[in-house]
Amino acid sequence: PGSVSAAFQEYLQHLGLQDFPCGLGSWNKSCLNARRRPRAQPAGLEEAVPAGEETPEALLELLRDQHSPWALPPDCSPQERLLREVAVLAPELLHGSRVFQVVKSLRILDKGVEEVDEGVLRFQQLEELVLSANHIRTVTSAHLPRTLKVLELCYNAVGDLQDLCAQPPPELQHLGLGYNRLCGPSQEKHFTVDFWPNLVSLDLSFNSLTDLLGLVSQLSTLQNLRILVLQGNPLALIPTYRGFLLDSLPKLSILDDIHIWPEERQQFHGLARQPELIRSEARVVVSIGDMKGLPNPEAFQQLEVGSEGPVITYSYCVTYQF
């Protein structure tokens, strides 16, 4: 599938919401039809379950028992469990377009998605959208529900944020853009309070951001920002990188997955007022701990004096790609 909508339809088929023990079928038809009819029997009396049918409780047990062939894997999302159980208890809620009203969290990972299409707007209650490990190059903000609080786009090919920042979801609290193709200094301008007034967590790790001063000046406007991940960018190689960020963004609680303690912040107090210490250079030391599969040169040094044995010279080239 090339779009989120197409991937979602495949996702629904994978969940089997219309198949036993979910949905409506010969296994529960009488029970569900009885719910729709006015109660004819006296209060307190329950109709017997017809032969060949199951009670909703028995069907739920087939979904929840880890040894059941219909059970979801242990690592499945809470959203998947919820949809399966709703499909047992009230399958009419998931009929047709109604399913879009139930979904609050949508996770589509590594499904070849290239486009966040307009169909995503049908998820009127969507709060979390995770599209990691796909092939997305750009995101049109007009196609994102305004209710969105979490947007995760890690491991994609996003190189420009202009379309995403045109009308971003105003309540967004987490934005994940790690392992993409963001290059500085053209993209730093998109990380201000004008676009993300409620942002608490921002992941920009493993991109190609280079302008530390420019990025910090934008991030300093995000008054709610508490979690920031920048490791893997060239700017993270600057010697004063962590200290400058800690002093420049005093409300941060976690930087690069490391908690910030008051003692560490105090250690770098005043560094934000000394931008001249930030130099656009970095020193990288690479140490080779072990090499395997190379001929031992000592074996070729045991030739007798005057022998006419061949002299074999080996040379090696080690390449590092940054």
Automatic annotation (TrEMBL):
Keywords, comma-separated and alphabetical: Leucine-rich repeat, Repeat
UniProt feature coiled coil, ranges: none
GO annotation, cellular component aspect: cytoplasm
Source organism: Vidua macroura
Gene: Lrrc43
Residues that span the membrane, as ranges: none
Protein name as catalogued: LRC43 protein
Ribosomal protein recorded as keyword: no
InterPro entries (UniProt xref): Leu-rich_rpt (IPR001611), LRR_dom_sf (IPR032675)
Superkingdom, taxonomy of origin: Eukaryota
